[in-house]
Design brief:
This protein has 384 residues and is mostly beta strands. The protein is built from 5 helices and 24 strands. The N and C termini lie far apart (52 Å).
Length: 384
């Protein structure tokens, strides 16, 4: 029989990660900082300096005062590296680390719920992190004052804004749209522009019912794939801000203030909404929670990893709220003889968008490399 190329790829990736190479300077000493250059991202910097790309959240945790959104780092920024003097003092408290069965450390940058066992899945062990960076077991009886007073948001606004979401096929009816470029070309014969970057001006029609006052923001998005029996995925491309309100039925003038991917003249607009983000309230563990499946993985990567988005086959009509947590797992399988392979946890998700058509979640913990469409998921914690 031939070798499955997907399994071979996973095996090669596992071998690469099992023998990490950590960067050193010409003297053999580990560097303490890194100055960002074009082409850098937290994933490849984690591989270079820590030896494991899956630990990129450690770099983010140490540099929260520099990095506003982990999706974006910029040339010239100086990042502190693990092990540097003062790294713990400068680092913002993560609020939690995910310790699955077997003790493998999976950083999530979140404060996670107390241990919970669910229908044969291995129990998950969780810990919280104090202001000094030390790990405190939930049952240790540590004083409340030992926990860092400034908790990180349960859902960061940047994670929710960038997340694709499911709506009716064809998208929301009351959408606005980008009409054209708002800047005159410097050369008379230049062709009309259809693609825009940050700080470009655009002419827009605001969503139905919106006044488009100066300073008002709208989310630009494209139509994505259709998911059978659910709806259609809307993929955010950027954020525009009105700088000149419409008068006498003229178009409003806006500027692109955030660009997640290519913003174009075909993009539609919705009111900018960060509802559900910013709260520090944590989800409460539940047992025997609702089951569903992964219906779609954003970008269709070969090996989805931390910070990737997935769409689940549940909706807000099922009571799913922003901040709820799910675990993805591989089903129990029959093996040789009477033995079976037990259900194995693969990853941990947190809901960042919930509509009446579908739920979008972000991967916040991972134990196995394979996360794909059709895998079962079960809710393990709900927002109070």
């Amino acid at each position: 029989m031939g070798t499955d190329p997907r399994r071979a790829f996973i095996a090669i990736a596992a071998l690469a990660l099992s023998a990490p190479l950590v960067a050193q300077d010409s003297t053999g000493a580990k560097p303490t900082t890194h100055t960002v250059i074009v082409g850098d991202n937290l994933w490849n910097l984690s591989q270079r300096y820590i030896g494991n790309p899956f630990l990129w959240t450690e770099l983010y945790r140490l540099n929260r005062d520099v990095i506003e959104d982990p999706h974006w780092i910029y040339p010239g920024e100086v990042l502190l590296l693990p092990g540097a003097d003062g790294a713990q003092a400068r680092a913002a408290p993560t609020g939690g680390q995910f310790l699955p069965a077997g003790g493998q450390l999976l950083p999530t940058g979140r404060q996670l719920p107390q241990p919970v066992a669910d229908q044969g899945l291995p129990s998950e062990k969780f810990a919280r992190v104090t202001a000094t960076g030390s790990s405190v077991p939930p049952s240790s009886g540590a004083a409340i004052g030992d926990v860092a007073p400034a908790l990180l948001p349960t859902i960061r606004a940047g994670e929710a804004i960038v997340a694709p979401f499911v709506d009716r096929e064809g998208g929301p009816r009351a959408h606005g749209r980008i009409v054209s470029a708002g800047d005159l070309p410097g050369i008379a014969m230049a062709s009309e522009r259809f693609r825009f970057q940050a700080f470009d001006r655009v002419l827009i029609e605001p969503p139905v019912g919106q006044v488009a006052s100066e300073g008002e923001r709208y989310l630009a998005y494209k139509l994505g794939p259709i998911i059978d029996n659910m709806g259609q995925v809307m993929i955010p491309t950027g954020v525009v801000e009105v700088i000149k309100a419409p008068r006498a039925r003229a178009l409003a003038v806006a500027t692109v203030v955030k660009s997640f991917s290519e913003v174009s003249a075909t993009d539609r607009l919705l009111p900018f909404d960060t509802a559900g983000t910013g709260t520090t309230v944590r989800p409460v563990p539940v047992i025997n929670g609702r089951s569903t499946t992964v219906r779609w993985v954003y970008g269709e990567p070969v090996l989805p990893s931390l910070q990737n988005y997935v769409v689940l086959g549940v909706t807000s009509r099922n009571g799913i709220r922003v901040g709820d947590e799910f675990i993805i797992y591989q089903r129990a399988m029959a093996a040789v003889g009477a033995a079976t392979v037990p259900a194995l946890p693969t990853g941990k998700l947190q809901v960042v968008r919930s509509t009446r058509y579908g739920v979008t979640a972000i991967i916040i913990g991972q134990e196995q490399p394979s996360i794909e469409e059709g895998m079962p998921a079960r809710i393990i914690a709900r927002m109070p």
